[in-house]
Each structure stands twice: as C-alpha cells, then as structure tokens.
## 1
Amino acid sequence: MTTEQQTTEQQGPFRSYPWPLERLRDALRCIRLKRVKIRGPAQFSHGSSISFAKGADVRSPHSVELGHHISFGKNFTCEVDVRVGSHVLVSSNVSFVGRDHPFDDPAVTVYEAARLDDTVIEIGSDVLIGFGTIVVGPAKIGDGCIVGAGSVVVGDLPPSTICVGVPAKPVRQRYPDIMR
C-alpha cells in the first residue's frame, strides 16, 4: 500500500491539512454535531465519525438515527424522521422533506390543514447522495445506491444502483461485472 493510499484510507472523504488545522476542523465538527443535537429531536442517536458542514438544519419531528462514518455537506436540511446506515456521503444543498401537507379536503385550506409528521426516510449503508438532491419521503434508498446530483427521490431506490433524474430512476447497476 502506498503512502497516498494510506493517507486516503485514514482521512476518508476529507482533505488533508497540517495538524493544527486538523485539530481545529475536528473541533468545529464536534461543535456542529452538538448544535444539531441540541436543536434536533429528543431521540437523536449516532455512531462515530459523524460530520455536519456549515448550515445544517435538522428539524425531525421525532427521531434521527445515524450509523458510523457519515458526512453531511453544507446547507443540509432535514424535516422528517430519518435512519441512515454507515459509510454515507450526503453532498451539499441536499434536503430530506416529507409529504406532510394534506390537500384532499375542499373544506380546509392547505394553510389550515394539520401537518402530518409520520414520514420516515431510510438511507442504507455505502450510499452517496449527490449535490442538490431532494428526497421526498417516505422513501428508502438501498445499500450501495448512488443518487446523482439534482435528482428528486420520490420513492424507493434499489440497492447497488446508480439513480438519476426527476423523479430519480435507476440507470444502471453500480457493479455491472458482479453476478447477482
């Protein structure tokens, strides 16, 4: 294994900085995580190595469950309950929202209707969600799935696929040479 591979393996998805800046970056990550936990729901559980970039806004009504080694990019927004596996990258400007405004009663305006808050978004392990993606729950993104930038997820996405578009649909297998 080369020195570059070892450094990448230790760093994960993050850039390498001189050690004083590394300590500062680690401290900022810790502060951001605590900020999200304080403002977030009462049931907030997480594993190790969780990172929220600037502008994270987590307003889940009931619970957030995060595995290990997860990174959320700048301006991440979450307004639903969420369960995330391990080894997940969520790019910048990604939103998790729900179908939470009933609009089927003509006697009640959308503004006056009571908000529904039972939406859950489930993200598997080894997942990448691209820049600017909107996930409208309820939805489940399978293990090993890659969601392309700018996609809108409105339903379940199968494991080990690359999905893109509005609405997001599988375009190919992530590992085409592996027999299933």
Note: Residues 87 and 124 are 9 Å apart (CA to CA).
## 2
Amino acid sequence: MTGNTQPSHRNISRSRWSMVTQHAIAAPQDPRSALVELCMHYWYPVYAYVRRCGHAPDIAQDIARGFLQNLFVHFRDDAAALAQARFRAYLLACLNAFLADDWRRTPDGEMASELRHAPNNLELRYQRDNIQAQSPEAAYQRSFALEMLSRATHRLRAEARQTGHLPMYEALHKFLAVEPLAGQYEELARELGRRPLALVVALKRLRQRLRELIGEELADTVSSHDELDAEMKVLHSILREQAR
C-alpha cells in the first residue's frame, strides 16, 4: 500500500500507547489493559523475530508467550524505555533484552488470561511472509507492518459487510495495492452488473478508507502526531519493499 496517508483523526492522547506511557506510574491499574491489547495485536512480529533467530515453532511460541507475560509484569521497571514514543521500537528493544537474558526462566506472576491461546496461523504466516528474511529484525519489521495492514484490511471488509457492499469489496480487494490490468474493470463490471466507472469510483473510495484505517491502527502505537507521521513513513517503506 503506497501513497500519503493523512494522520488519523483519533485523539493521540487517548491511544493505547499513550495510556501506557502517560499513566504507567500515576495509575498503576489503568495502563495494563491497554498494553495487553497492544501486545495481543502484535504477537505475530514477536513470533516472527524469535523464529528467525532459529527456534522451532513450538519453542518460538513458548518464548513469545513468556516474553509477553514478562512484559506485562515488569513494563513499569524501565522508565527510560517507556519514554520512547513508538510502541514498535519499545517492543523490539524489550524483546532483545529478554532474549539476551535467561528467557528460559518461568515468568513472574499469574499468566494473563489473554496469553493462554496464541493467535492462529502464526507459523503459516511466518512461512509465507518471512522465510527469506535476512535477519530477525527484518522479520520483525515486516511482520509488524503486515499485521497492521491486515488489521486495517479486516476492518475494511467488516465495514463493507455492515453497509451491504461486501460483493463489491470481494471483487475489488485484490486491487487495493495494485492497478487492475487492461480489461479487468470491464470483466468485473459484467460479473457484478455494474458500470466500469462505478468500479473505478468504488476502488478509489476503498483505497482511501483503507489508508484512514491504517492511520487509525498506527495511531494506537504512538503518543504524538509527529511520531505518527514518522511511523507512517516507516510503514510505507516496509510495505513497498514487501511488494517487490
């Protein structure tokens, strides 16, 4: 997905990451749920990093679960790390520190209920997205971007279903990041009983809405609009590299 994405209209000061960074000390109970939600959203890049380090799938899953549990328990211990404005960078720094330590130790505290069941298809996604990744960090960065894109795309599809436009979405979603070939608009128009121009307009709207949803997902991982702009540039760079 390329092109300029406008910053989300979401209030950055109320993003999940802002809740964590601003209230970790002042409100001991409030930020934990926000951090749990963020980590559950981005379990996949953690798994991809650990897999690219050479661990087998089952071991990588256990390490990812142990790391996230450790993060939930100890995230207030490092004020300097929490001061980082970007969740993506914070998560990777914490993961590196965890792996450099004795990660075989049982994490402290009761296991968070959200961690008892890992997301589905992590290994399948890893094999598809990162089997040729040159380094663990490359696998992490790519997986983080793809997870964000996946979350936004799922929201876009749900909106199409809710508004009664699911057939149009299903016909056009494969063109969200690439241009249709000559004649494809006409072919789809015949299948859907629509005019080709209507499909052109619909695809333009879908792309714009996807950019907005990506902005909203990304906004949840930063604590300022400046950081949102910077992260958007990083995301575009990673996705362009993925498309090559």
Note: Residues 12-152+160-243 form one domain.
## 3
Amino acid sequence: MVITATKTRFCHQTWQLEAQIQLIQTMGDVTYVITDVTPFHPVSHIWPDHPADKGTLTIKGMKFEVVDCQVGAVELASGKLHVGTAIPVKRDAEGWVFVVVHVVPRTDAITVGDAALLEVDKEYQLSLSRGHSAGHIAYLALNKVLAQNYWRKDADRKDPHGNYDFNSYAQETSFVTQDKCLDTYRLGKTLRKRGLNSADMLSDLKSIEQQVNVLLGDWLKRDAAITIDCHGEHLTDSRYWQCDLGEGEIAVIPCGGTHASHLNDFGSILVTLVEVDAQTVEMHTDVKR
C-alpha cells in the first residue's frame, strides 16, 4: 500500500469516523497504527503544549484503547516510520510524509488494509480545547494590560491586536490540561533591554491580574465564534486560530491545537499571576463552564 500523509479532522468538530489502516509497526509492548484519515490530535514533537487525544480504535470487532497519539514521519523510499522526537526531518521534506500515530497496546491481530472505526473521547478533547483557547485569550488580555503602562519604549513585536507582544517575548513554556493553561514567563535582562519595566510589573502583579480578569469578563460577553482557518487537510499544513474580541482587529494566531468553537463555551476564564522568583512569572488560566 502506498502510504499517504494523514488527513486530519480534529479541527472540524469530528469525533468519530471510519478509516483504512496504512501502516502497522510494533515496538515493545505497543503497536503503532497509522490510518489515512483521523479525528485524533497528536501531541507535537516540537512544541508539546497540547496533550494527545484519548479514545479507541475498533478493528474487526476488537476495540483497542489509544494510549497515546504522536506525530510520525515515514520515509517513502524505505517505508520506515520515525515517531516523535526521533523524526529526523522538518515538515514537508521531500520524500517524506507526516502521519498521526495511534499508539495501542501490542497486538498481532490487525493488518494493513483493515478498516478501523476511530472514536475520540469527545469530552476530554473539548476540555483541552477550552483550556487551549482560554490560554490564547488570556495572553492577549495580559499583553493589552501590560501595553498600557509597563513598556518604556516601542517593542518590535506586536500581537494580533497591535499591543506589545509580551507573550511572544517572555514565554518559556505553555502547557494545556483539562480546562486549564499554564504559561511560564521569564523576565530576564534581554526583556528589560527591549523596554519592559519588569520591576514595576512584579510589584503590581495583583493589580495586573485584576485588570486582566476584568478584560476577560468583558470579552466573554461578546457573541463571537472561534474558528480555525486550515490551509490544507494534512498535519503539516498551517492552521490559524481566529476570534473577534472587539479590539478592532480580529485576533489571528498560528496554532495546531484543538479549540473551543465559541466564546459562550466558557462560563468564565480566570487568570492567576504567580511570582515564582525575581525573573519568573506563571500565568494560571482556569476555565469554568
């Protein structure tokens, strides 16, 4: 069978579909299953901020738990599969296709060409989607609040609303969990040189937190959809998160994760800013339904 790049459906509010198995590989106590199309979102091997989906594959009447879901790359000349951090090439490398790897407990009972019913754990995916979208909305709010009083000179990077992009400059890590996003920011010498008054930011952290939460409350009153603009149907094609938060420009953010579909998916979004040390701040973003 000719192996093709996986067609993805995780940005289409699709949680169940039928597909054909293209490749099977067993490693230790697990088996990798690659299908031609999938509703499962894999964890990224480059920026693993969004966890893998959970769910099941049903093949020839047998149901297998998807214990992990990763990005894979297949070298077409050899048919060799590389998974996760073992992928040796960048996306769209000639002679390679990128695939979604469904990891199931070891089995010898399935074969290439079999039909599979793929079913994503919808509620789990939706909880991650809310957490991820909330993280985007929260950092846009933080950027806006900081832009008003905490930059002493113009910053080169601006966010989609035209505010100084503190998030882009300072973010070290971002991790999405169910109805939550945790961002870690570093307030180092380089950021101070770029113009951030980090000492003032730290001393006013609780006030900033309050202003961010007021802004989030205002934004969530809007009747606005969240959409994903997919520039293709494959894993390596660009995808853009979009939402009109009433700031003059529609927020457009490159992002490969799954997301909420409307601002009314959130009862509230609440941010807590935590000073870890003199150079590190955490933003805890929590969603209430």
Note: The chain has two domains: 7-120, 123-288.
## 4
Amino acid sequence: MRIIPPALAARLEGGATTLCRCWALRRPDGLVLGFTDHDRDLMFSGVTYAARSGLEAAEASAELGFAVSGGEVAGALTSAGITGADVAAGLYDGAGIETWLVDWREPSSRILLDVASLGEIRQSGSAFVAELRGLMHRLDAQTGRSFRAACDAQVGDSRCRVSLADPRYHAAGTVGAALESGRLAVALAGDFAAGWFSGGRLAWEGGANAGHAADLRTHLHGGGGTILELWEPPPRPAMAGDAFRLTAGCDKRLATCRDKFANALNFQGFPHMPGNDFVLRAAPDAGARPDGSSLFR
C-alpha cells in the first residue's frame, strides 16, 4: 500500500488542488534530465524539472502480482532537452525514469508514483512517444544459457576467447563518401575479403559521430572500392574523412568459428543437437517394435 505524506494528503482533501507531474530521466551515462507538465520550472532533490519541455503522460497502466506494468510519455524533440540525434545514438536506451506527483506550490509535498525504464522510442518528425516498462519487466530478461545449434557467446568475450586485438580481426578506415542512408564507401587500412567484417561492429573515432558505435550489416566490394552497410544510419551525417575502426563479425556457425577464427574448441553452441525435423521426419510404424529405429531408415 502506498503511504501518502500527510502534507500532500491534506492538499488532496482540499477543495482545490495544485498538482502536477514531474519526470526525472536518468540516462545510463549519468546525465539526469527533469521535466514537468507545470507552467514553470520546479526544483527538488537537486534536479531542476523544466517546464515547457513538451513532455506529458500519454498512457499509464498498473497490474497486480508479477504482471508487467507500463505506460507511455510523449514529448517534443528539442535542442534544450531530448534530441533526435541522441535518441538515434542510443543514449536513452534503458534509461530510468521516475514519475512524481507534486504540489507545485510546495514541491516538498510530493509522492513517487512509479519507477520504470524506457523501452521502445517511436519518433515522427519533431515528436516522440517513449514506452515505459515497469520493474517487473526485468524478470522477463533471459538469464543463463540456451541449448541451440548456434553459438551464444559474443565474439571476443571471455567464453569465445578470440582476441580481437589480432590484426586479422580489426581494421582502421575512413569514409570516402556517404552513398545513402546507412551505406558508406570507405577506404580500409589493409586488404580484407568481402564479407570479412559482415555482422561486426563499427566504432566511430572521428567526425560528428565520434564515440558512437554501430552494428555492421554487410561488408562488400563494389564500384572499385569497399562498401559498408549499417543496420541503422549513424545518428549524425557521416562526412568524407571521418575515421572509424572495424571489428570482425561472426554468424555463430561452427564452420565460421573453425574456418575464420580457428576457434572450434571454444564454440559455445550445440551443432549436433537433433532438431524437430529429426524427430518428425519418419512416421511410426504401427506393426513395428517401438525402438526408434524408424528414424534411421
């Protein structure tokens, strides 16, 4: 049961209320932003909650037991608050958000309504809607290992043990031209076969995107040069001369682990585990002994 502070309870029981909502947004990099739907700025607990931020509650829901509660907040992308470039760069992925009910005449009279994290952010022009995910959402996160044919390690981690510092698995490069959204003509320091970096990672080291990283979709040769295709365009336009570093990708197959990385001993999948097609490929014979031998006919 939620305990309402006596001062706030007295305000709620009055004939007129002076309430507003405030949101404290805490990004994973430590930056804290405050927003309120009141018409002037408020401050408490060392955070300034900015008015005229365009942020407002769009939807909210609460569930009993271990069901995941949630909601949405809607707002405008502005240079003084949440910007489209920062959203695209993933700076708000997994950010925590606190929702407060506050008496704007006396901000010390307040109650914490909810603690959530940001989920999917939908952007349209200069507006956005952000999904709020309750604390129970964390219980849906997968933990432990999965038994499947593909490897479940990340290339280069402590289970994979491939050293990405090996010159064969990384390369420096610069942008020659941005051909279209997420497609770049580049020059690499070294000679690498087409597809070598497909599924890998691109980390920007220069230009407007310095410090950001992106997943690489494909690495191919065409038009007399090297072409990189990203899954998503960079948060800010890439310019000729922007520097980056590539690390090789892995498609999680045993053959790739063996032939590309010479690392089959550390393969973290189960490539010989029979699948559903093995079980279903032969119908049982009603007149035969039920010993499973029909699978091998």
Note: The chain is about 10% helix and 35% strand.
